[in-house]
Amino acid sequence: MTTPPRAGALRAVLAWGRLLLVLAVAMAARAQAAPAFVPQARADTRAVEVAPGVYLLRGASGEVDAGNLGRVGNAGFIVGDSGEIVVDTGTSYRHGLALLDAVAQVTSRPVKLAIVTHTRQEFLFGAAAFRERGIPVAMHAAAARLMAARCETCLKTLRRTLGDEPMQGTAMFTPDRSFDAPHRLDLIGRPVEVLSFGHSSGPGDSAVFDVRTGVLFAGGLVDWMRIPDVQDSDLAGWKSALAALRALPVKAVVPGHGPLAPPASIGAVGRYLDQLGTHAQALLDQGAALSEVADRLGLDEFEGWDQYETVHRRNASVVFLRLEREQMFK
Description:
Blueprint: H1 5-33, E1 48-51, E2 54-57, E3 75-79, E4 84-87, H2 93-106, E5 111-115, H3 121-124, H4 127-132, E6 137-140, H5 141-162, E7 177-179, E8 183-185, E9 192-196, E10 206-210, E11 215-219, H6 235-246, E12 252-255, H7 264-285, H8 290-296, H9 308-328
Helix pairs in contact: 6-7, 7-9, 8-9
């Protein structure tokens, strides 16, 4: 039977409308999975309250450079009835002083403890400002050992990059307290959980969970709208840690880098790690050369994230080499 012209035209219009709807839904889903990266040229100098008594000082986007003073990592603090806990101490002695000043603008209660969540230069070297005021600095023992082994070199690199003046007063340190296992802190009149998962995003990487509000300071375990760095990681341990975080009643995430994030950011990092490993294995199975990997291992979901052209390309090579070694020694 021949379809009447008007009926055929109507079907064509409906089919085109369905196609447009499918495309719109797909684009919306992709936008939700990988929101657009919004650059932040400088670190925040004032704390933003992200939940009652919980504050974030967001770091700048991009690489460490003289323009951002190396302040690319997030920091924050939790205010209790009797004092505060600060999470991560910044890039330099002066950055540490700026963080303490930001706390003082919010409350006159004493800072009882600073916790360094992981061994990255933008989270470590403000410790001198805290210790100068008698505020103890705590780290996981494994993270502290990694810092002792390599961070004199980190500090020299920072001085070359940022200059002597911004780094004045900055020095290596030994943490005042170390820990090996998850534990609860009852220092400030509200319960705070320190979480650790062994070797995950790095040796001894930790997170801090404010039980009252459900805000998770995720440290190196979660970056949001910024490519996570796998260089120090154990990928299996990292995925296990992310699964443990997803089981918590998290309401919001303060990531190591990037803006305040939804709980779904934990899963987004897991997807990145899964896709990175799957694509690297596929390239290895195809006999790709290492020199090809950075160009060929593209991940569409994450191409709009900060450091995609730098950290992601390095991640691709790192994971490919690990898989290659595993295959050689089977």
